[in-house]
DNA sequence: GGCTCTTGGTTGACGTGTCAACCAGCAGGT
DNA sequence: ACCTGCTGGTTGACACGTCAACCAAGAGCC
């Protein structure tokens, strides 16, 4: 039987490059627009978007992590910076002394409310408006298939990094 | 006339999230595989791939920049690191004393030749194999449309950063 | 109560990418 | 020749994300 070819065919290669490139270029463009007309980073925006969608404007860090699919250390660094900018505060959770609550401050709410409309316009301009509704649905289906496959085929976990597994 | 809605519809939002997420998750996965089974970074891989495709194994930095669509400073940092790893050397270009040539070293060629087959397998496993040829072509067309739009609608250039435009 | 295990979060170090500044060398005009 | 501008490349400072180590507080069990 023929083994799988080592290389991608020109057509496959083109598909692969287009896929990676399109996303990357689009992400770069949107980041620059966002930063230029609102001073927010993509990371800032994501945090503020999630927080502002929650009535209380306050979430445990753990939940933020889960919603954003971020590593906890990344969230910790990011929230420290945002606290210095006055967008949020980290306060201790009375229900669990280990946990910390991330609370949206007025400055943070103002920032996201100022930034969001223009950002959404840019998403439309560079993505949504280029596709018919049917194409949009196809694209969603294919991308979700890729995501689904990644989810059900997890990365081989790195044999717990904490305990160094020594024999004294 | 109805103005454009400020927010994305649920369907649009889903499409947008799937697009961004699928690419990001896939990129993360491939980076981890690559690093784990060949010790190469994505950036290393890209450089080595381009160099190894050229018969001479040597290119002016400027051309590498253009091929990879990288910033020149990024290339400079990256090539310095890779020179320290012994994958490449930077040598002066006899034809133009400003320019520097990036030359692939044997260790670099060995590295890319060892890494490529497994990397291609991973691209197939997590991307190509999930799609029928027809779907692959559709996806290519849509992604290339997005790329084309970005290309013909360039980011408003930042009023030349170098000259500070002062009035003495 | 004590003992261990787990969970939630922080920190520091490191590799990477971007930006602005800088510098040397080429090119064009006079 | 000279001056001016442009081009190719390097550097340093900074923001970001990942990893491993660490710490403190809960949970489970004797």
UniProtKB/TrEMBL annotation, chains A, B:
InterPro entries given in the database record: HTH_MarR-typ, MarR/SlyA-like, WH-like_DNA-bd_sf, WH_DNA-bd_sf
Database matches in Gene3D superfamilies: Winged helix-like DNA-binding domain superfamily/Winged helix DNA-binding domain
GO molecular function terms noted in the UniProt entry: DNA-binding transcription factor activity
Domain of life: Bacteria
Domain HTH marR-type: 12-148
PROSITE patterns: HTH_MARR_2
Biological process per Gene Ontology, one example term: response to stress
Protein name stated in the entry: MarR family transcriptional regulator
Organism whose genome encodes this protein: Frankia canadensis
């Amino acid at each position: 039987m023929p083994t799988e070819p080592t290389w991608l065919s020109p057509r496959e290669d083109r598909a692969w490059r287009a896929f990676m490139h399109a996303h990357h270029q689009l992400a770069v463009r949107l980041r620059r627009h966002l930063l230029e007309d609102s001073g927010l980073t993509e990371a800032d925006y994501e945090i503020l978007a999630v927080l502002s969608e929650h009535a209380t404007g306050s979430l445990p860090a753990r939940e933020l992590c889960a919603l954003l699919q971020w590593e906890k250390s990344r969230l910790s660094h990011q929230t420290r910076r945002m606290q210095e900018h006055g967008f949020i505060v980290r306060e201790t959770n009375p229900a669990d002394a280990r946990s910390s609550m991330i609370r949206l401050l007025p400055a943070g709410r103002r920032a996201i409310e100022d930034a969001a409309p223009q950002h959404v316009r840019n998403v439309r301009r560079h993505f949504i408006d280029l596709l018919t509704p049917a194409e949009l649905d196809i694209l969603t289906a294919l991308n979700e298939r890729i995501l689904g496959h990644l989810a059900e085929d997890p990365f081989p976990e790195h044999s717990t990094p904490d305990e160094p597994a020594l024999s004294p």
